[in-house]
Amino acid sequence: EFLLGMLNEMVREYSHDEVLVDPNSYTLSAVLLGVDDITESLELLRVFEEEYDGAVTTQVFNVALATCSRNENGWQRALTLLQRMKKLGPTPNEDSYALAIQACAHQGQVRVACSLLDEIRQARNCHITERLYIPLLKALALKGDIGVVESILDSMREDSVAVTTQHMNLYLSTISNGRNSTLALEVLEELVEKQADDPLVSPDIYSFNTVLAALSKDGKYEDAKSLLQRMTDRVFECQVRDKRGGFSYTEMRPDTVSYNSVIQCSPPRAALALVQEMKMTRGLGVNSITFVNAIKRCRDAFKKGDPYAYDCFLVLMQLAREDAPMNSYVVGSMIWMAESANDYKLAISLLRQMSVPNTVCYNGVIKSLSKQGFHREALYFYYEMQKAAVPSNRQTYQFLVYSIQKTKNREVLSSSKKKFNLLEGVASQMAETEKDCLTSGPLWTALLKYSAAIAPRPEQRYHSAREIFDSLVGTADEETTIEMLRICSQTGKWAEAIELLHCSDVYSAGLVSMECLNIAIITCSKAGHWDEALKLLHLYGGKDRAVSVYSLNSIVKAAGPQAPDVSVKLLNDMENLYGVKPNRQSYAHCIVACNQAEHREMKYFSSEVEEAGSLRWFECALSLYRRMAEEGIEASVQTISSVVSACEAAGEWQRAIGVLQELPAFAKLLGNNAEALDEIEVEVPNLYCINAALSACEKGGAWLEAITIYEKIRASRNAPKPNIVTVNSLLIALDRAGQTELSLGLYRQAIQEAYIRSPLRRRLDIDGRHRLMVDLHNHSGPMAKCAVRDYFEDIVQRKPMEDAVMIVGKGNRSKEEPVLRSTIV
Fold it and tell me: How far is CA 163 from the centre of its chain?
């Protein structure tokens, strides 16, 4: 509006009867040059056509086209303007096409730019020239698309368009950004050799510096040094255009940029030597970039353990003070070198020498202090930043939090309350513009953590953290959201975790953060709400957005006790639907679920299960166990225990023993070689496995196999020691087989070898007298029979002076109204 007002004033104030002052194309172009927004530029163009139609020339449209390359999606407006010029005028010229190509190329629309070049080839009023290719080649150079640039150069030669040094330099830039320094060096050598035949492509200093930069990016110091040395020795003579338009040879000597490029990939001592060489060479001068590159090389080498890096840095620091402006770039690189060397005193000294320190320099000092555990000093420099109005950034707060968490002050280190108070003090002094998570996210994450830690009860822990989370300015970042979700997980707030995930502002490609999703799923699973975890998985997960295997395992584990079919289905779908390969824990949780389901069905629905004839849960456990072996996943002893237990519940003693015999230790245990029993070195099945196998034998009536396993265990020193469950299972099997004498002998042997305790003990009766008692608690019916027989036989043999009181407990493994009274009577 201001510019249009000036135009109206120009016509109104300076025009009179004899002279009419109207804007011309230069005036309108000058007006458009002051506008950066494409929408405003097009609006002015429309007004110009209505008010000053005769002055709206191709030049004016070209200024509007130039604006398009500076705006997002401006390439579409550029194409629209170009089409409008072709239909309604004025006729586009070479500049029009060049600007349209530039708008397309700058915004990544390479194909559209190439189609415009094809259009120019067919246009009668516009000839294709080398200038039209420059914007396209510049855009491709940034992308490092070597193949496309080579094809464009070939098409230029086919169209008889001159390929110049500028085009070849852009080709070299493309190769450099494409990280192919070997090709860049070959192209340069070829240009030097062919310059006599084609002086238009003779390399210049920019060509050599581009190749040096490519070698530096790839870390090829020897090649870069060799090329620099050849330039220094005046090996190269290149043709340059003189004042008369002809070409003459001149020596190609390195400049400051050349040396800086080589320094960027040099080891510390070589970098120092190059700096000193630059100081002694006439016509060359060191600059800030020289010292920044050299000091950075010292810092990188120091981190890798170079013993000379720090000494080289000290010399460079002295040279910089003599010959380079001590600006924020140079001093900042020195401070960060001191930080890497843990020389916090030097870092502080360098900061104090600066007239106007910036954020990078302060961050270097704060990090240096934080690594030493000096949290008070780090906070001092932070508050100094605030007082000097130096803006803090995310790194500043990250280093501050680290200094407090790793402080050498024992009182602060051991107290979450003190840490919280220090962080809260930082938050209270923070500038309003820095209170968003993008800038101070690490601080808010730490505040959430410690606010929850100092709360006495889980409910208060959640509410304290949530109060801070809800007070955040702007949107929460991923780290802060993750910390809040972890607190929900620790306090059992699964519903709140789901709400937080749905309302989360942390998105990647339009979807919630996968780390946040993983924590929310695990939170729901831990709380037993596996169905809600599955909903989250179906809503946000998928093969292209794979959640972690730990999240899926949490659902498998949580669903197992209630819905084992869900656990098995999820295990089967892991790789196909969610792109995650099941691991050892996935199978373990699923097999445990199958074992629990088999025990549950046999306890409550045994008759229905036997009549159904469908796939049983023990078969599912066996199938999963076989699949683990096929996929090369070694099952743990606990997993094998669950498989054996499932077979035991189903009474499948042959399968239970078959599973155990696949273990080398158990197979050796049951072997006929007695000498091998004490040589077992591999992991022996745990007692739970063996007890389950014995129980399976008992249910299947295989008492001989049970006796064999028991005797082998007793004979081996490395096998687990039998317990009351082992003996109970064996005695039940023998009792069902009518092996009374064998049962009694085994019972006495178990007491003698301390596998079980003798039921005889003295206790106070209800009258307060010490009485001899036979305590049959934890005894099965067969074991109680053996205990009573053993007691009465002892009476016959020893004739004790007093009678014993029988304490009859609830019969283990009995049904309905189980008591041992009727059994022993």
Answer: 46
